[in-house]
Amino acid sequence: MPDENAQKSNSDNGGSAKEVQGHDPWRAATVPLIMLVCVTVMACLARASLYFAQDADRVKFLTESILSALIVLVVVVQAWIYNQQRELMGQQLTLARKQFNAIERPYVSREAVNWAWHSDNQRQGRYLYSIYPVLVNSGNTPTKNMLLNANCDLFDSPLSDGFEFPYASKDYPATIGIRGQITAKILWISDADLLAIQNRTKYFYIWGKAEYYDLFENTPMHTTTFCNQITSVLGNPLDPRDTRDHTRTSVSIAFEIYHKHNDAN
Q1: Dihedral pair phi/psi, residue 258, rounded to 5°
Q2: Fold designation for 106-264
Q3: Three-state SS across the chain?
Q4: Distance (Å, rounded) from C-alpha 219 to C-alpha 217?
């Protein structure tokens, strides 16, 4: 049975780098604005010094005024630098938090579709097959508020591109722990239907979804969908018992990943 790896989306931290490296037009205009203010202040001081009759008074006024203006300028520049550092640290903290969440969050995927054969108590000498997709959490934290749903059906022809993958009206809650796994749902198919699939007169599909949250605040809901098709049946579905050991089976069922309805975020 083929394995399926979870498609770990980069949407959790894709926009964060842009936030850190984004272009701020106000920040770019800050230095020219400071220079303009300095030139304006110097011009005003030079004009104000003309009101002093003595050159010595004029020089003293300009010297004291320029020193005072420089002190004010240094304070303003330091405050601006501090504000820029604070904004950058905030952006880096946000990026680090998103990256941490992306590393530590749960990732749910369909690991396999297992099956087993059973004697049919209502049809003597006949058999039923239970089919159960297995979901695995490959992340470093458990799922939260998880809801599962799965369905299957037998068709006379392959699925059309417009098939909408209907589900049961009610989801059921579940939890997958760290590196844990869970059976999504047990579904059933008869030996006669499996024989029709083997003869390619029927087509069987099984699909499902898992909706869950991680443990971190202000993060979106994650969704995993899957769909598999029985593409090969070997052996005799009407009697799956091994001829040498009736506790074992001679039947083999292959489930292939369908080209639609297999996503994870």
Answers
A1: -75, 155
A2: Immunoglobulin-like (2.60.40)
A3: CCCCCCCCCHHHCCCHHHHHHCCCHHHHCHHHHHHHHHHHHHHHHHHHHCCCCCHHHHHHHHHHHHHHHHHHHHHHHHHHHHHHHHHHHHHHHHHHHHHHHHHHCCCEEEEEEEEEEEECCCCCCCEEEEEEEEEEECCCCCCEEEEEEEEEEEECCCCCCCCCCCCCCCCEEECCCCCCEEECCCEEEEHHHHHHHHCCCCEEEEEEEEEEECCCCCCCCEEEEEEEEEEEEECCCCCCECCCCCCCECCEEEEEECCCCCEEC
A4: 6
Q: Is the pLDDT of residue 209 over 80?
A: yes
Q: CB count, 10 Å around CB of 53?
A: 7
Tens of pLDDT, residues 119-164: 998 888 899 999 999 999 999 999 999 999 999 999 999 999 899 9
- Cβ–Cβ < 8 Å for 223, 174: no
How much is the CA Rg of the chain, to the nearest whole Å?
A: 35
Domain residue limits, the chain: 16-104, 106-264
* Residues forming a β-bridge with 141: none
